[in-house]
Specification:
The protein has 147 residues and is mostly beta strands. Helix content is 5%, strand content 31%. It has 1 helix and 7 strands.
């Protein structure tokens, strides 16, 4: 059976799809966590995960700004989850901070509906390697930022 990407959705009253991310959410100028809204959660989801990733970062795997696991699929409230490591190994949100003059970066807020619970707080790479088979649905919101 193919991966369903029809129903699960992630949006934000703070970030328009493909819109510029406000400085309030950037690492240097506020580092506030944007509000996220998740809808269309499949009935078989036992947990949700959210990962904020910048594939444009000049690193081999891009840069992970935030990982959140254990989100209750009934409430779909991101604040109900537990924060895992970002790209520098800290369990925290780290807003956009592309290199000066590097151009526009794309920030992917991925939401994953999972058929089993995530154990611990894996890195983004560990999560994708160990839980790819548990992803029931996924979707993303993309915002942009440049300095």
């Amino acid at each position: 059976m193919g991966l369903n990407i029809q129903d699960l959705a992630i949006s934000s009253p703070d970030i328009a799809s493909l819109g510029a991310i406000d400085d309030a959410f950037a690492a240097e100028t506020g580092n506030q966590v944007p509000r996220l809204e998740i809808s269309g959660v499949p009935a078989e989801a036992v947990e949700l995960a959210v990962i904020l990733h910048d594939p444009d970062a000049p690193l081999p795997q891009g840069f992970t700004h935030w990982t959140v696991y254990g989100i209750d699929p009934q409430s779909a409230d991101v604040t109900s989850g537990r924060v895992g490591p970002n790209g520098i190994g800290e369990a925290s949100y780290s807003g956009p901070q592309p290199p000066h003059g590097h151009g526009q970066h794309h920030y992917y807020f991925w939401v994953y509906a999972l058929s089993r619970k995530v154990e611990g707080e894996p890195s983004r790479e560990e999560f994708l390697a160990n839980y790819a088979d548990a992803i029931v649905e996924q979707n993303r919101l993309v915002g942009t930022y440049q300095r």
